Amino acid sequence: MDPVRPSLQRRHACAALALAGLAGLTGWWRQRPAAAAPLEEDVCIVAPPTPYDPASGQPPTAARPVPTDARCPVCGMYPARSPGWAAQVIFTNGDAQFFDSPLSLLRYLERVPDYTRGRSAADITARYVTDAGSGQWIEAHKAAYVHGSSALGPMRAGNLPAFATRESARRFADARGGRVLEFTEIDAALVAALAGPGHRHAVARL
């Protein structure tokens, strides 16, 4: 008996099975349902919050400089590149999350668990925005904001420049247009309108 022949027979059988499988796969591919429409959401790669550094000498709830590598969890931009618009929140354990603008901060506050795993709005102990006049950090809920001005923020869309006093916000509005709003006057409908359509983000965490 030729010892090579059984081996050849096995190879032929394997080849036939492979071709049959390929034919079946081809048939399935032709009959498969139409592919689902692409998601409208962009995917942002979002890093975890920045931990508190005890060596900084700052209280855990104090506003801190924006790290150059920090990413906005809402839009994925680098807030350090637009310091005049930056915002931040501090969690009860001292961790911080940084934002490219007050608008992104407000969007974040509406859906904290969606942007930062394991955190909720109740875990936030401080919220800060940048005073557009002085560049200093101010508490977000005490700031005055200008809606509808000609100023374009980092996203080149509707934004809410913040000011330490209502008077400075009014002077800005007189020069650049818009109306002055308190923090409590900015509701979800206005935030959604400023964010605009087609700019929802699905979060892919590192």
From TrEMBL:
Superkingdom classification of source: Bacteria
InterPro entries in UniProt: N2O_reductase_NosL, TAT_signal
Protein name per its UniProtKB record: Nitrous oxide reductase accessory protein NosL
Organism: Paenacidovorax monticola
